[in-house]
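Aggregate trends can hide what the representation actually does to any particular protein. The sequence in question and its structure tokens are set out directly beneath this paragraph.
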Amino acid sequence: MTTTGTTVRAGRRPLTAASLAAALTLTLGAGAAYAYFTSTGTGTGSATAATMQTVTVDAFVSGDNPQSALIPGGTADVILRVTNPNPYPVQVYSVSPNGPATADTSHPDCTTTGVTFAGTGSPLSPATSVPANSTTLLTLPGTAAMDPTSHSACQGATFHLPVTMAVRK
């Protein structure tokens, strides 16, 4: 077999600066990766938890117009004014009854109100968030009920419903 041109000899080629740099980079990179994945460390840290300030609940005030009226044998909405003094928002988790309903002072003969508060499920649905440092009106649809035993002296009364509200950050 005859060939013309340059003869190519099999064997080692001399290392050039570029190939040497590439080999060193790969070796050093693998070593750094190995060190990254196998290194350990120790240290300390600290954090403090702030105490949540009391979120208050008040009855609605003049201007907070309820959408429904309470009548014997019926239900009505309960409106609460929720004030969050914390520097972060809170979520109302549940509202539950905390005592008997009483009529306002202008209805002193309304001794048998027949009014009850059903409360809400836990968690409250839909979820209600109260922004930081603010007050929000919370309407609880159909959670007040009046049975037929209510005295007629209760007509036109506003009822105070003691409640307990659970909130979460």
Q: What stands out?
A: Confidence is low (pLDDT under 50) at residues 1-11.
